[in-house]
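Input (Polysaccharide pyruvyl transferase domain-containing protein):
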Amino acid sequence: MNLNNNKKNQNILIFGGGFENKGAESMTLVSVHELMRLYPNNEIIVISNSDYPSEKVREEKFNFSIFPINPNEMLYFGMDIFKMSYLLFNILRYVIRRKGIFKFRNKNKFKSILKNTFFSIDISGYALSSQWDFFTNMAFINRIKIHRKSQIPYFIMPQSFGPFKYRKTERIILQPLINRYIKYPKIVYCRENQGFNLLSKISASNLMKSLDLVLLSKEIDENALFKHEIDYPVIITPKNSVAIIPNSKNNKFSKENMNMVYINIIEKLVELNKTVYLLSHSREDLKVCKEIFNNCKNHEKVIFIDKEFDNIELSFLIAKMNYIIGSRYHSIIHAYKLGIPAVVIGWAEKYRELTNAFNQNDFLVDVRDNFFDSKLAEIINTMEKNYNNESLKISSLLVNYQKFNPFISIEAKLNENT
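Output:
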């Protein structure tokens, strides 16, 4: 029996996506597109942690629903400890500031959506790890708890996990919750061996390995996702161009001044007669791009377009590059998907395993290493000589990887024991 036949018109929810950066946006659009294709009779709803884009933009732009809910509302809805915190917060709010009860706007509406849900997927990308704060981890676990309580099937799509080196107080709370709830999802897709090995000690039966879902997706039908055809401006790029895509998070992990590192890279590329494009892959990186551009000596060879691109527009630009120098994980994903090589400046295991999958480890530097920037000039020289061959290598491997679609396994799991 095909369970989907009995679940027509029910909701399919997408958690962990959004529009704050191009990685989240691309995972959201790919997921919506795949679910629309596989489940055309169901309502696809993106559960967003923010009100961006605005209600007006959502109504005008997309062919799918976006439901904004504050992360605090989600925590209150799922975790008893946060219900107690909410009560205490309101008591203090009244006693100290003489203000009324803080009311959550969307809690009841979310309950209604959940009651009519077929299944949900999580596309967080990277949320369960001691590299992130306590509440990011709690929010991830909380979503599983909500679905377990309601007995709604839950699928965690390809993402990174670990390390789990929490501080003692965090570990006392988080580790038992991870041990309990990570067993509930029908599938937990791990992008890297590190995450797979860590979680296999807790729950091996529901684990699967998969590369990033954006990388594995093929072309999407823009007409299915957008209400109106988007007329993108034509940006003419010189043939000998390289894009630099920085990551503001690098400053957290690097011992070097990252802005100076990027400025030195630009000087090196200009020496190689390259036109350099500074591209932002996230709203928070726009400021970094401006700072780098304002401190460059060779402005005539450096192009910074001060705007937030959408995924399609950004892909148009990346496709015209000889190669990129990227620090955002999904900027590398977008480049590889287009057959464009990358010099990768990373800070986590996910960068190493991604470059390894495409035989590109020679072009990876880790910002946590001492004097990593001294290696960059040599790596850029090597890439400059070999980018055509590296492009062919990446494209060849991609064809084989794209034979697997992580969304196809969902229906098989849903139909088990029915």
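The first strand starts at residue 11 and ends at 15.
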